[in-house]
Amino acid sequence: HYRNSLNPGGQLKISPEPGITKVCDIWQSSLKKFKNRECLGFRKFDEETGSYGNYVWQTYEQVNERIINFGNGLLHLQINIIKSDQTEKFKIGICSINRPE
């Protein structure tokens, strides 16, 4: 069996850090460490020149604010529009191309 040279003992890591067991734990850990660092970037296409511009970045903190706002919007829909009991689960599907929106 081949192992990564950074892990010479051969013991596989279960988690990158103690207490991290879910994807949302990874996000929260990254947010704490890198709050003001670049997280999500995109390059706008210029139709006139036919080329892409420089990257425009959002920080981890800015992306986290968008996550919270999106979640709040879903809760608003569930409580005020769909009018379902908060203990009842509802499903959503999101189909999108890779873009920051």
Automatic annotation (TrEMBL):
Species annotation: Cetraspora pellucida
Q: Does the keyword Iron-sulfur apply?
A: no
The record's GO CC annotations read: endoplasmic reticulum; membrane
Source species taxonomy: Eukaryota, Fungi, Fungi incertae sedis, Mucoromycota, Glomeromycotina
Q: Source organism's superkingdom?
A: Eukaryota
Q: Which UniProt keywords apply?
A: ATP-binding, Nucleotide-binding
Q: Is Disulfide bond tagged as a keyword?
A: no
A single GO molecular-function term is: long-chain fatty acid-CoA ligase activity
Task: Please state what the protein is called.
Answer: 17796_t:CDS:1
